[in-house]
């Protein structure tokens, strides 16, 4: 007979304690891009809904951006860096696979030897990491988890490819996840996640130029038809209905995908006055960073308030997808 | 099974909803791209809605072959 293990007591659930984000200062407009590739401001606005995006200079690293966003989220949570015992960085654009971003980021913000790992689920990464963090806290494996989505997509673009260089951008967004002391306080619903690996070629880095390539039409069709059902599953798993959602924050892939997802949710009972994130207009598509960036920006603008019910849903390369309902801190 | 007139009328409603083009302007000889100014992403949205409405499959490679409204009506009629 093996001895019985003692397990951590765990928590009733988890909640988001604070948010933070960071973007490079350098703005790149559609007109800037039109000087380099055959495109126009009107074309980009009509196809993807982007007016401008932020691109990091060479000396601003992914870890720099992750650390800044993470430090801001810790400050917002009211905790200190030493309270953080786990750091998860969702990213798919580190310059090299080793070393990871999370351990460096943790050291940079002053967390004391926390568990630290990167998670790659591309544009769905933040929702995957948030779901993982919530379950770590619930299980008692962690007390306070810093979850960061950080990307430097500009390192992985062919700046002469007008189908991708107009879309992607750099930035980081973060959330601190801690324990709910009772069931009423739980602020992160169960994650609804999945993948479609049979479509892995639809978004990939090409070996010949190390640049991101996307089958735009196939991804658009997939995202506009398959993501609303994931969002509805997240709502159902949380024991809610679409009418309970105050704010929808889908991954900021393309404004037309965002609008298509919102339309499908409204057809299933989501309210007409549900606010929908449109951060892509000024931030571009920042992959795993887009959801926490959009949520933090909307909160700063007063478009989402403390205690409101927010539906997050990420989707992208893999293909992979994940969503959950959260309460805004 | 819808006949060609019914398919055209149904398709015109979808085009109006997706692209804001008056149903009266959606006629068989019109080119989606050149006459109706519909872009590739709107074509996907039209295809998805047509799939639901008429119970057909319109994969992306087939969609690229549907140059005119009449092409789409014929494709749907053959495959429904």
UniProtKB/TrEMBL annotation, chain A:
InterPro entries: ACP_syn_III_C, ACP_syn_III_N, FabH, Thiolase-like. The keyword NADP does not apply. The keyword Ion transport does not apply. It catalyses: malonyl-[ACP] + acetyl-CoA + H(+) = 3-oxobutanoyl-[ACP] + CO2 + CoA. GO terms for cellular component: cytoplasm. It comes from the Bacteria. One of its GO terms (molecular function) is beta-ketoacyl-acyl-carrier-protein synthase III activity. It is found in: Cytoplasm. Residues 117-197 form the Beta-ketoacyl-[acyl-carrier-protein] synthase III N-terminal domain. Its main location: cytoplasm. Residues 235-326 form the Beta-ketoacyl-[acyl-carrier-protein] synthase III C-terminal domain. Residues 252-256 are annotated as: ACP-binding. The active site is at residues 123, 251, 285. Its EC number is 2.3.1.180. Pathway: Lipid metabolism; fatty acid biosynthesis. GO terms for biological process: fatty acid biosynthetic process; secondary metabolite biosynthetic process. Catalyzes the condensation reaction of fatty acid synthesis by the addition to an acyl acceptor of two carbons from malonyl-ACP. Catalyzes the first condensation reaction which initiates fatty acid synthesis and may therefore play a role in governing the total rate of fatty acid production. Possesses both acetoacetyl-ACP synthase and acetyl transacylase activities. Its substrate specificity determines the biosynthesis of branched-chain and/or straight-chain of fatty acids. HAMAP family: FabH. Belongs to the thiolase-like superfamily. FabH family. The last Arg residue of the ACP-binding site is essential for the weak association between ACP/AcpP and FabH. This is Beta-ketoacyl-[acyl-carrier-protein] synthase III. It comes from Pseudonocardia bannensis.
From TrEMBL, chain B:
Pathway: Lipid metabolism; fatty acid biosynthesis. The modification O-(pantetheine 4'-phosphoryl)serine is found at residue 40. Keywords: Cytoplasm, Fatty acid biosynthesis, Fatty acid metabolism, Lipid biosynthesis, Lipid metabolism, Phosphopantetheine, Phosphoprotein. Its main location: cytoplasm. One of its GO terms (biological process) is lipid A biosynthetic process. GO terms for molecular function: acyl binding; acyl carrier activity. GO terms for cellular component: cytosol; membrane. The keyword Phosphoprotein applies. Belongs to the acyl carrier protein (ACP) family. This is Acyl carrier protein. It comes from Pseudonocardia bannensis. The gene is acpP.
């Amino acid at each position: 007979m093996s001895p019985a293990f003692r397990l951590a007591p765990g928590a009733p659930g988890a909640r988001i304690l604070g948010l933070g984000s960071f973007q490079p200062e350098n703005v790149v407009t559609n007109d800037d891009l039109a000087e380099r590739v055959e495109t126009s401001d009107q074309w980009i606005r009509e196809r993807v809904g982007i007016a401008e995006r932020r691109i990091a200079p060479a000396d601003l690293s992914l870890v720099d951006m992750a650390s800044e966003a993470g430090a801001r989220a810790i400050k917002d949570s009211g905790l200190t860096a030493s309270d953080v015992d786990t750091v998860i960085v969702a990213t798919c654009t580190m310059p090299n696979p080793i070393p990871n971003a999370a351990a460096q980021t943790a050291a940079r913000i002053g967390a004391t030897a926390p568990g630290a790992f990167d998670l790659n689920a591309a544009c769905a990464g933040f929702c995957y990491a948030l779901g993982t963090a919530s379950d770590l806290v619930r299980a008692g494996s962690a007390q306070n988890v810093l979850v960061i989505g950080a990307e430097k997509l500009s390192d992985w673009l062919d700046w002469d490819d007008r189908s991708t260089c107009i879309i992607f951008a750099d930035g980081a967004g973060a959330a601190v996840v801690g324990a709910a002391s009772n069931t009423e306080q739980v602020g992160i619903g169960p994650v609804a996640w999945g993948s479609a690996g049979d479509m892995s070629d639809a978004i990939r880095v090409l070996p010949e130029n190390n640049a991101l390539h996307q089958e735009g039409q196939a991804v658009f069709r997939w995202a506009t038809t398959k993501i609303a059902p994931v969002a509805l599953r997240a709502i159902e798993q949380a024991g809610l209905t679409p009418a309970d959602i105050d704010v929808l924050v889908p991954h900021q892939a393309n404004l037309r995908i965002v609008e298509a997802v919102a339309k499908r949710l409204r057809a299933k009972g989501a309210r007409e006055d549900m606010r929908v994130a449109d951060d892509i207009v000024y931030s571009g598509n920042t992959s795993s960073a887009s959801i926490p960036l959009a949520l933090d920006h909307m909160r700063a603008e007063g478009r989402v308030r403390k205690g409101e019910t927010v539906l997050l849903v990420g989707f992208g390369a893999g293909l992979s997808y994940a969503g959950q309902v959260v309460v805004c801190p | 099974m819808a006949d060609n007139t019914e398919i055209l009328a149904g398709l015109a409603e979808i085009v109006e909803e997706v692209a804001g083009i008056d149903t009266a302007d959606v006629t068989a000889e019109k080119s989606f791209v050149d006459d109706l100014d519909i872009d590739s992403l709107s074509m996907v949205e039209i295809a998805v809605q047509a799939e639901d409405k008429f119970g057909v499959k319109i994969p992306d490679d087939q969609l690229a072959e549907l140059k005119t409204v009449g092409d789409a009506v014929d494709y749907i009629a053959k495959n429904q």
